[in-house]
Write a structure and sequence with these properties.
Distance between the termini: 47 Å
Number of strands: 0
Shape: globular
Number of domains: 1
CATH architecture: Up-down Bundle
Strand content: under 5%
CATH class: Mainly Alpha
Structural class: mainly alpha
CATH topology: Growth Hormone, Chain: A
Largest sheet: none
């Protein structure tokens, strides 16, 4: 199950979060008005929002082989790799070493950097990395820096012992998450600036697929690797250490990709334009970027309700997802069962669900797609209550994982489409999107921190029933926003953007 890794970076639109979560800007829903609510924004070919011309079949296939798209694909792998190393994979390691469920639940707090990344997104946008930016450019300099920090943090985490020093493990996981969140910010900007409009959709699809492969490598791949090291004669502690060291080595794929890539033309021009990038002191540049982005959003109508909705929409999913790995292990399934079914079958269900979610987002008004996603992802929690009753049956776990991952992917896709529709100011898109995805991570990081205590007190069946009930706040907020014309305003904003572009 991939709930705990939904950071919206891997959101799937044919979109990578949630997640377990980089940020992506998928096509927004097609326009088709209904009596209750006007349609959401029309489909976007890329960040600019222009309607794409219909490509030929050959163009549709060969676009995925273009160098810029391939670069974005490999960066997607680099973005997806570290997320589980401070999340679900780490939770399996901790449970196997005897760490109690309450402590494991509190480890959701190590996702704090994904929640707060909006705070330093203006720094990444406004400042250069000494030496590296001069040699490689603004975006590539930041990418190499974050990737080197990732390697160091993962190796440091590998050398810790969860049973003897959980505090040190928490610090190591926090450093991994901080470097990963920063890399997400930079890759997001690099992707948008690198790809021309007619390659944005292909770049997004490639990025999402590679992101999921990166997550698979650090979940199922890492678990199989640890089992292999144990089979070769290493003790459990040494096997986990070398498993994590191997994952650190895979970060080199991102470094090589960055070195092979070229700096986006827009970024290169900005770096050498004092008026656009280097005017004033570093502190002033960061302050101007941050204040402008936040003030523009917070002065909108119903801003507080919108932000609350962003926080709560994925909460029911995240609350259950925080306990998925311990639930599967406690139920009696083996580590390899978890890796093969939860991460293998779950990946396939997620990819299919992503395509279905993308179809829904194009076929229905935005508000309708949001209702479908919200109801599906909350209802899927009931399947795990059923799993707790059925017990250790591989076929039942397979069904549960397929249902949950399929519905969660649909919910994530339409949610990311909604977040993208909120970022309609071209001057502040990057920082505002970082703010919104960070707020979306609050449910996974803070509100879900007590999930382990709830599970211990209530038992697994009641826990998953309660996780479904946790969807009520988001459903109430969705109904209220629909009633106040929020989605009508988003449709008008999208129409205005298309009108300006056409002129």
């Amino acid at each position: 199950m991939t709930r705990s890794t939904t950071s919206l970076a891997p959101a799937l639109v044919p979109n990578p979060p949630i997640t377990h979560t980089g940020t992506m800007t998928p096509p927004t829903p097609a326009t088709s008005a209904t009596p209750a609510e006007p349609a959401g924004p029309a489909p976007l070919a890329g960040p600019a929002g222009a309607a794409p011309s219909r490509p030929s079949f050959v163009e549709t296939i060969t676009v995925y082989l273009r160098p810029r798209v391939l670069i974005v694909m490999f960066l997607g792998f680099s973005a997806g790799l570290p997320l589980a190393l401070s999340g679900s994979t780490l939770l399996v390691w901790m449970r196997e070493t005897g760490v109690d469920l309450g402590t494991i639940g509190l480890f959701a707090l190590v996702g704090t950097p994904y929640t707060l990344k909006f705070a330093w997104a203006p720094v990444v946008d406004a400042l250069d990395v000494p030496v590296l930016s001069r040699l490689l450019g603004r975006r590539r300099g930041w990418l190499v820096l974050t990737q080197l920090l990732l390697i160091a943090a993962i190796v440091g985490l590998a050398l810790c012992d969860p049973a003897k020093a959980p505090g040190l493990v928490a610090l190591g996981a926090l450093l991994v998450a901080a470097a990963s969140a920063t890399q997400d910010i930079v890759i997001d900007a690099f992707r948008v600036e690198s790809l021309p409009e007619n390659e944005q959709a292909a770049g997004m699809a490639s990025y999402v697929a590679a992101y999921r492969i990166g997550m698979l490598a650090s979940t199922a791949g890492a678990l199989f690797l640890v089992s292999g090291f144990e089979a070769a004669g290493l003790g459990k502690a040494a096997a986990w250490t070398w498993g994590y060291v191997t994952m650190a080595g895979l970060v080199a794929i991102g470094i090589v990709t960055t070195l092979v890539a070229t700096e986006p033309a827009a970024s290169a021009r900005a770096m050498h334009d004092p008026a656009a990038h280097a005017a004033g002191s570093p502190l002033r540049r960061v302050t101007v970027a941050a204040v402008g982005a936040f003030s523009e959003f917070l002065t909108r109508e119903n801003a507080a309700l919108i932000l609350a909705f962003v926080v709560f929409f994925k909460f029911c999913d995240a609350f259950a997802g925080a306990m998925t790995a311990p639930f599967v292990i406690d139920l009696g399934f083996s580590r390899n069962d978890y890796a093969a079914i939860v991460k293998g079958v779950g990946l396939a269900a997620t990819l299919v669900g992503g395509f279905v979610g993308g179809t829904l987002a194009r076929a229905y008004p935005l508000v309708t797609a949001m209702w479908i996603g919200a109801l599906l992802q909350s209802g899927s929690n009931l399947v795990f209550a059923w799993q707790a009753v059925v017990g250790v049956k591989l076929w039942a776990l397979t069904v549960s994982i397929i249902v949950e991952n399929f519905t969660a992917a649909i919910g994530t896709v339409v949610f990311v489409a909604y977040l993208s529709a909120l970022c309609h100011s071209p001057l502040h898109t990057a920082t505002q999107y970082a703010l919104l995805t960070a707020l979306a991570a609050i449910g996974r990081t803070y509100l879900s921190a007590g999930a382990g205590y709830v599970a211990e007190a209530s038992g697994w069946v009641t826990f998953f029933l309660l996780s479904a009930v946790a969807a009520i706040p988001s459903l109430v907020l969705l109904a209220w926003l629909q009633r106040t014309g929020h989605f009508r305003a988003l449709a008008a904003s999208a129409a205005a953007k298309r009108s300006v572009q056409d002129t």
